Amino acid sequence: MTAENLLDRQFGADAPNTKWVTDVTEFRIGDRKLYLSPIIDLFDRSVVAWACGPSPSLDLTTTSLRGAIAALPPVPRRWSTPTRASGTGTAPGAP
């Protein structure tokens, strides 16, 4: 299976956390193999998160992706409070 080419070879980003990439790299250590899956932010080429393990599995890449998502800064919430005149407002988390 081949994923759709969303980047179209545009390996730069104008802001942090807008384009992440990953690849799995194999390292040989003695007679063993170790696989590294970093998540790299194309804005500044920083490693946002990584995972390593004994096989290049889907679990390896999803572990690094989950770590990157967990490292994202919290999104500020916009809160609205009810007004006395109308008695209406927006509940937290509502659009």
TrEMBL record:
Q: Which domain of life does this protein belong to?
A: Bacteria
- Domain Integrase catalytic, first and last residues per copy: 14-79
Positions of the region Disordered? Answer: 75-95
Which stretches are tagged as biased composition: Polar residues? 80-89
| Name of the protein in its database record | DDE-type integrase/transposase/recombinase
Gene3D superfamilies linked: Ribonuclease H-like superfamily/Ribonuclease H
